[in-house]
């Protein structure tokens, strides 16, 4: 139990540090896209943000090392990738989106490794990966104005918003089609099937239809996808009880 708590704390600290370094590198862009962020609004200084970043990473490494060397190695690699993403990779179309979605999904493989059952995290990984990739692309559309000013080469900037929405629609369709598969092939219970169909798939169908509109509130849509991700992961837990 102590190992799981330590592994969770490590993941939480590294994720928080990743958010800080992302805001640090997005300082100028967030003046347009997200003026309410702590750095841009002046709540904390850049110098203080870096101190928090170093401290949180240090705590993450400490708790990961308490669990095992393999968990520490994963955390070190993750922290490095988050730094590379913020400083370089997010400027490369789609590559940054893929990395963030992968790392979000990998949390469940990581939890499985910490608990001694990596295979148990595969299905949550797939769900979290796809829905986060959708959310990342939606956020890029939301940030189109600021990204275009600073010539950030996101998918909407390079390929256009209509093309990006087609990719998003395809990913949502993939998620809807694949969502019942754990019931049919991996012994998830019937409650899982009912909950996933009504609480996840129906809202996803609604989003799929709304994407055809030219007047979407992308920030609200991004929040809705975040809610669906959290709810979906809870349903996955119910499915194996």
Spell out the key features of this protein.
241 residues; Tetracycline Repressor, domain 2; flat; 0% strand; single chain; mainly alpha
Supply Rg: 19 Å
Helix share of residues? over 70%
Q: How far is the N terminus from the C terminus?
A: 19 Å
Mean pLDDT: 91
- Morphology call: flat
Indicate the topology.
Elements: H1 2-25, H2 27-33, H3 38-41, H4 46-67, H5 69-87, H6 95-115, H7 122-142, H8 144-149, H9 155-159, H10 161-178, H11 181-185, H12 190-210, H13 218-239
Helix pairs in contact: 1-4, 1-5, 1-6, 4-5, 5-6, 6-7, 7-10, 7-13, 10-12, 12-13
Please tell me about this protein's structure:
The protein is mainly α. It has two domains: 1-87, UbiA prenyltransferase (Tetracycline Repressor, domain 2, Orthogonal Bundle); 97-241. Helices cover 81% and strands 0% of the residues. It has helices at 2-25, 27-33, 38-41, 46-67, 69-87, 95-115, 122-142, 144-149, 155-159, 161-178, 181-185, 190-210, 218-239. The relative contact order is 0.09. The mean pLDDT is 91.
